[in-house]
Amino acid sequence: MIPFPIKFENRVKNDLFLGEELLTALNTETPTSVRLNPHKTKPNLPFQKEIDWCQNGYYLTERPSFTLDPLFHAGTYYPQEAGSMVLDSILRQLDLPEQPKILDLCAAPGGKSTLIASFLDNKGMLVSNEVINSRAKILRENLSKWGHTNVVVTNNDPEHFEKIPNFFDTIVVDAPCSGEGMFRKDPDARTEWTEDNVQLCAARQKRIVMDVWDSLKAGGYLIYSTCTFNEDENEDNVEWLLNNLEAEIVSIELKEPIQKDRIQKGFYCIPGKTATEGFYIAVFQKIGNESKKNKFIRNNDLKLQKDLLDCSKFAKLETCNIFNWNDKLLAFPKDFTNEFLHLQANLHIIKMGTNIGEISRKGIIPHEELAFNPFLRISEKSNSINLEKDLALKYLHGDTFSINGAMGFQLITFEKEPLGWIKNIGNRFNNLYPKEWRIRMNVDLGSAQSTK
Predict the structure, then answer these.
(1) Which residues are the active-site residues?
(2) How does pLDDT run across 93-123, given as a tens digit for each residue?
(3) What is the domain-level CATH number for residue 433?
(4) Is the residue at 423 inside a domain?
(5) Residues 162-175 pLDDT 10s
(6) How many CB atoms lie within 10 A of CB 280?
């Protein structure tokens, strides 16, 4: 086991709030937990017990190979650290409008965003942002598989959200931090920790919140979290934000073993006391009046698609508006069309609503996002082919093989849960599962050996 940084170890030993037992806990086995997608098939996993503070959250008795489970790729569950699932309990205590607009600012790889999507239940709007392009692509994949129509994925710096003031009812800032809470899950994080980095992170966290503050409506909520134990990034930042913003702390009830912080304004999950990694969270409410008016700007490049006869082969779209963007058909919830178009005009969008498919000379080529979206309910007119596990893994690997089915586009499923599309052309089929999503393990051997 990689040793703790000496200065971190000494700080924890001298902190009565944490205590030396934290160091012992950080050298034990990491708990495994998942959160189920309530609109998809329940997977066959080694469930141990429910997580008290999160609907659909469960501890597992062991960590299976998620990569070799087709239902993982189908978006039926998401492996997520149990401490970060506290967000579910907090969201359910806030006084939100019936259809809230929520921003997850530092969202990759997607744990909190998929949680928020389940909380919204395809109502309102979720904007999930990631500033690093490679991580934003992973975020897009995970949210596409989770399958909601009311989701936008953006690839922007926090300061870019100044273009859309007074827009969000809630903003979640899971701020980049020094990662002390990950010392058990990721021992290499111990080698990267320094006191200077703690101070650098604390300053960056303040900047991130200040950059996005104007995007929050008056009366809206900012949920601030880190995976650290130190006061610099947690309590001190909370106090600084209260002194520099028109904000107040929101009273939240979380039961033991989750505990109040050192200043009784936020909460900690502390390994050894909770079956979690390290996690800190606090909730602010914005007070005062709106300082800027938000004028909605529409993007004229997006044209309303009126002829949906070809689309109806694959999905029921009564609740959506469909827009044509460079021959790609995007489905938005009708209630939020103006908001979607406003975001598209002001931010760098990499996913908007659900991509139904692409217009080609021979008709619509269905998109993988449509396959994963249970709210659009793939029509009974759409043919599907259900595969056993070995062939499902080969499909996810990008392979082709002998298959029985009608000609044309077919939906591939495992245990009746959609995985994606093929085009059956008779003596063979074209595997349409995205190359960047494909399994890279040797699925024949079930080992971690790369096939590249």
Answers:
(1) 227
(2) 999 999 999 999 999 999 999 999 999 999 9
(3) 3.10.450.720
(4) yes
(5) 999 999 999 999 99
(6) 28
